[in-house]
Amino acid sequence: MENNNAYSRKKEPELNKQLIIDAATEIGAELDWHQVTFQAIADRTGLSKGGIIHHFRNKEDLLDELMTQSLTELKAQVEKQVTNGGSKGALGYLQFVLEKRDDEKYKKTMRIVLQAIMINSKYNDQWLEWYNQYIMPADEDKLSMKNRIAFLVADGIWYAEDMGSSQLSNEDKQEVFEYIKQLK
After folding, report:
1. What are the UniProt keywords, alphabetically (predicted)?
2. Which of 15, 38, 79, 122 has the most beta carbons within 10 angstroms of its beta carbon?
3. How far lies 83's CA from each of 65, 96, 97, in Å?
4. pLDDT (tens digit per residue) in 102-154
């Protein structure tokens, strides 16, 4: 039988760090980021508060890492989509949002990202920097109405679904994407 005692656990710093991030994401998505405490993470993971503090001095450090990981994962997913023949830029972002809406881990992570953007302007700045680099690169027409609409629709769907005010069927998602795709 495996011993779950934190004191006899092998030291696996990267696994523990990810365990902390995953637990914080779960708690923040279930409740609210303000409800994420090191004690709540310790209770969920079996790690000690000291072990958590070893990886993250405070909640801001934890949220910084969570944002960095989230944006890195988003970049990889959008690039993968383009590589697999999907759309790029704002239309690709919309396609990505529509396709990932059923992925529970994605939904929880994006709920935390949305909270972070609303909590602190530095996260909003980080999001905008990511957006300008990967969704709307300088070589694309930033003033294109199609790009503006695609981005606004993607964010609208993301926000509405995370707040529980709207759920689209897969057919509706496809119809939205095809409609925007045909815009000039």
Report:
1. DNA-binding
2. 38
3. 27, 13, 16
4. 788 888 888 888 889 988 999 999 988 888 887 776 555 555 788 888 888 98
Look at residue 137 and tell me if it is in a domain: yes
Of 66, 67, 62, give the one whose Cα is nearest residue 124.
67
Distance of alpha carbon 90 from alpha carbon 140, whole angstroms: 10
Q: What is the pTM of this model?
A: 0.78
Closest CA to 4 of 56, 48, 54: 48
Q: Of 84, 78, 102, nearest to 151 (Cα)?
A: 78
Mention every residue, 6+ apart, whose C-beta is less than 8 A from residue 105.
none
Q: Rounded to an integer, what distance in angstroms lies between the CA atom of residue 171 and that of residue 184?
A: 23
- Please state whether 85 falls in left (phi above 0), alpha (psi between -120 and 50) or beta: left
Residues 92 and 169 in one domain: yes
The parent domain of residue 23 ranges over 8-57
In a domain, 152, yes or no: yes
